[in-house]
Amino acid sequence: MFWWQGRAAVEQSAPPPPVAAPAPDPEALPIADPGSLTGPAPPEMSDLSREEQRFFRYDRNRDRLITRNEMLSTRTEGFRALDKDGNNLLTFEEWAVSTVNRFEKADGDGDERLTPREFAATAPKPVAKKPACKC
After folding, report:
1. Residue 85 in contact with residue 91, Cβ under 8 Å?
2. Tell me: the pLDDT tens digits for 23-39?
3. Which parts of the sequence are annotated with region: Disordered (predicted)?
4. How many domains would you assign to the chain?
5. Are 116 and 64 in contact (CB under 8 A)?
6. Are 102 and 113 in contact (CB under 8 A)?
């Protein structure tokens, strides 16, 4: 009887891979003590008066002057709303005549630009509030 016995060379195997840390749960809230750290301050709104806010709605390029085109630019959406069938039969000048007249009336020096003081003259009249019922 023949007995076969082999002796293979035993190599040292590579070490096992390191155990990976468990991936953090994206839904979990972080646990940390901020100590004395503070975050950035929230943005602050500038203290523009109501009239300045109204002025800058028209003054698109912020040069503190309102041109005739800037004043009329807010009318294009209204024009499209009035032209329901889209045939453009309503002319812009006919539709904007009240704005043109208001601009020309407010433009005291006739330079086709409104200064903040001239623009203030175009402010709508305040609506009187009805007194509350005391029933």
Report:
1. no
2. 777 777 767 677 777 77
3. 1-51
4. 1
5. yes
6. no
